[in-house]
Amino acid sequence: MDINDLIKLLPEGYENACYKTKAMTRKRTIKNPLDLLRLILFYLSGNKSLIDVSQFALMSGIGKISDVGFMKRFVKCKDWIIWLTHHILPNPLIQYKKPEWLKPYQVLAVDASDIVEKGAVKKLWHLHYALDIFSLTCCQFKITQQSTGESLKNFKRTKGCLVIADRAYGTIKSIEHCIKAERKLSDETVFTHSYMFVITSLPLVISAAEILSCYRLRWQVEMAFIEKRKTTRQQLICFT
């Protein structure tokens, strides 16, 4: 998908939102919100420098703007970009209706992934990411050294948030971070934290060791997903 394809997805009212959020306050070199968005998308579409953006603006007929001039405009676009993501991302195929009992909460799914820095060194970083389940927008993110593990302490505590995370986040420190200044962990919680629970409907004649051995096989589906992603990526490269 190129810049022109993305522009076709722009929601109604994006121009008014640009002025309302003060991403644009006056028309000088950049005459309208669409031109500003073209520059933003070009800048974010790859390993582009501010000088590249300046040259792109001149070559595409937008106008003459310095690298510093664009950066000053870009830093004012935060609220507009947030507005755009809120209005573009929810599409008819991915819409989750929020249950009534979840209405008081902002439901976040958190996870972490490795990202590779471009260049000869290819240094690894850890991206800690919090996604709002119902708006499909990023609420928090943090980039750390790879040595920083998965923990809820990597995210700011916000009143009214319900966090969903996998078992890697189920540590005492993570739990204490969530309920800090609210209540203490019970002795039972601390005690059971030392154990792993596997719940099954298999008959009692199956031993715990056999059940755990079977449970480990679930990672095969993770490997299958990895292979599917590789295959899909190769097919997309072939088609493009």
Description of the structure:
The protein folds into three domains: 3-88; 100-196, no CATH class; 198-240. The chain has ten helices and four strands, in the order H-H-H-H-H-H-E-E-E-E-H-H-H-H. The chain has a four-stranded mixed beta sheet with strand order 3-2-1-4, with no helix packed on it. The protein is α+β, with helices and mostly antiparallel strands.
Outline of this structure?
With 240 residues, the chain is α+β, with helices and mostly antiparallel strands. Helices cover 40% and strands 13% of the residues.
* Uncertain stretches of 5 or more adjacent residues: 232-240
Strand content: 5-15%
> Helix proportion of residues, in percent?
40-55%
Globally, the shape reads elongated
- For this structure, the quaternary state is single chain
Mean pLDDT: 80
Q: Radius of gyration in whole Å, from Cα? A: 23 Å
Number of helices: 10
Indicate the structural class.
alpha+beta
Instruction: Give helix and strand order, one letter per element, not per position.
Output: HHHHHHEEEEHHHH
Q: What is the topology?
A:
Blueprint: H1 3-8, H2 14-20, H3 33-44, H4 50-59, H5 67-74, H6 78-88, E1 106-116, E2 124-132, E3 138-145, E4 161-164, H7 172-179, H8 187-192, H9 208-215, H10 219-239
Parallel strand pairs: 1-4
Antiparallel strand pairs: 1-2, 2-3
